[in-house]
């Protein structure tokens, strides 16, 4: 069974580097630059892991977490340069890695 990763990152160079690295390790990668599109994809597909940037256009990563109903208990790792302690504490309180 192939493990698939949902990557939500708006910076194209970072997104492409992560896709390259993950695919090199054998992961299937579904990458999106907008959280809304990723939410639509999650309605039809199950992933082994979600990699989520917080600073996204339109819908932030934090808003994505609030809208996403993680009934399948997919692990989520936040990848962000955001250095705001208040936001980090809120994310941890949501039980996000």
Verbal overview:
It contains four helices and four strands. It has helices at 12-24, 35-42, 61-67, 85-93, and strands spanning 4-8, 28-32, 49-52, 76-78. It has a four-stranded parallel sheet with strand order 2-1-3-4. It is globular.
Kindly estimate the percentage of residues that lie in beta strands according to DSSP: 15-25%
Largest sheet descriptor: 4 strands, parallel
Helix segment tally: 4
Separation of the first and last Cα atoms: 24 Å
Weakly predicted, low-confidence segments: none
Q: Kindly report the spatial arrangement of strands forming the biggest sheet.
A: 2-1-3-4
Quick check: average pLDDT? Answer: 87
H and E string:
EHEHEHEH
Number of strands: 4
C-alpha geometry? globular
Quick recap:
By secondary structure, the protein is of the alpha/beta class. It has helices spanning 12-24, 35-42, 61-67, 85-93, and strands at 4-8, 28-32, 49-52, 76-78.
Give a quick set of tags describing it.
single chain; 97 residues; four-stranded parallel β-sheet; alpha/beta
Topology:
Elements: E1 4-8, H1 12-24, E2 28-32, H2 35-42, E3 49-52, H3 61-67, E4 76-78, H4 85-93
